[in-house]
Automatic annotation (TrEMBL):
It comes from the Bacteria. It is an enzyme of class 2 (transferase). It is found in: Cytoplasm. The lineage of its organism: Bacteria, Bacillati, Bacillota, Bacilli, Bacillales. It comes from Macrococcus lamae. GO terms for molecular function: ATP binding; CMP kinase activity; dCMP kinase activity. Keywords: ATP-binding, Cytoplasm, Kinase, Nucleotide-binding, Transferase. Its EC number is 2.7.4.25. This is Cytidylate kinase. One of its GO terms (biological process) is nucleobase-containing small molecule interconversion. ATP binds at residues 10-18. Belongs to the cytidylate kinase family. Type 1 subfamily. Residues 6-213 form the Cytidylate kinase domain. One of its GO terms (cellular component) is cytosol. InterPro entries: Cytidylate_kin, Cytidylate_kinase_dom, P-loop_NTPase.
């Protein structure tokens, strides 16, 4: 087989996008951060709260550009850094639970994976977006480690946060994502679980690369 899709799902700050980017670069595949797409719609919603979701999604064009990591454009506005801020993070799980938002993004994501060659990370990729992906990974880490990682991420981006607040925020977001009605976060039956607690980025990347090689 010459082309495969790789689905990486898991809870907040487990390391999905860091690893997915590296795996995609090593295998010359396209990386797609679906969380960024839900964050982009959350940005649009916070600026246009009066517009119902079914109308809002029809006004949006989301583009992911593989440049300097990955840039996120919403109707040609670069919102890459803006969508990592706290107000977006606090509201994204609510927006992602809306049926119209999920239908809109799942269709877009399925189009992006049709020709294969994609590493896509999110919450419902292995279960809903690409249930036939050749490799599915369910990535987890302890909530303490995830809060520490996000604390460092936020520091490097100049976003104010505290360890205790991050433990609470991450736990609440995971709960909302795991209990929503439509495609909640859950491990696909055929996904390989990887607990990244205490593991280096290189170790996790190599593990997934060797799983991918078996399927290429
Ligand atoms: N073993 C590891 N695997 C993945 N990320 C790690 C690991 N160790 C430390 N990190 C750091 O943890 C953070 C993970 O954040 P991110 O990749 O955005 O997670 P997610 O996409 O799951 O929300 C990054 O800052 C990354 O550098
Ligand atoms: N495939 C996806 C990806 C993200 N999401 C939602 O989008 C939010 C933000 O995703 P993200 O991957 O940017 O989150 P972080 O783990 O990087 O903080 C998640 O908490 C989910 O509510 C989703 O519902 N389905």
């Amino acid at each position: 087989m010459d082309k495969i899709n790789i689905a990486i799902d898991g809870p907040a700050a487990a390391g999905k996008s860091t690893i997915a980017k590296r795996v995609a670069a090593a295998l010359n595949m396209i990386y797609v951060d679906t969380g960024a797409m839900y964050r982009a719609i959350t940005f649009a919603h916070l600026n246009n709260k009066e517009i119902p979701f079914n109308e809002l999604v029809n006004q949006l064009e989301i583009k992911l550009i593989n440049e300097k990591g990955q840039r996120v454009l919403l109707n040609d506005e670069d919102i890459t850094d803006r969508i990592r801020e706290n107000d977006i993070t606090e509201n994204v799980s609510f927006v992602a639970s809306q049926p119209e938002v999920r239908a809109f993004l799942v269709e877009l994501q399925q189009m992006m994976t049709r020709d294969k060659g994609v590493v896509m990370d999110g919450r419902d990729i292995g279960t809903t977006v690409i249930p036939d992906a050749e490799l599915k990974v369910y990535m987890i880490a302890s909530v303490e480690e995830r809060a520490n990682r996000r604390l460092l991420d936020n520091e490097s981006r100049g976003i104010a946060s505290s360890y205790d607040q991050l433990i609470a925020d991450i736990s609440e977001r995971d709960h909302l994502d795991m209990t929503r009605d439509i495609s909640p976060l859950t491990k696909a039956e055929d996904a390989v679980s990887i607990d990244t607690t205490g593991l280096s980025i290189e170790h996790v990347t190599d593990k997934i690369l060797s799983l991918a090689e078996e399927r290429l």
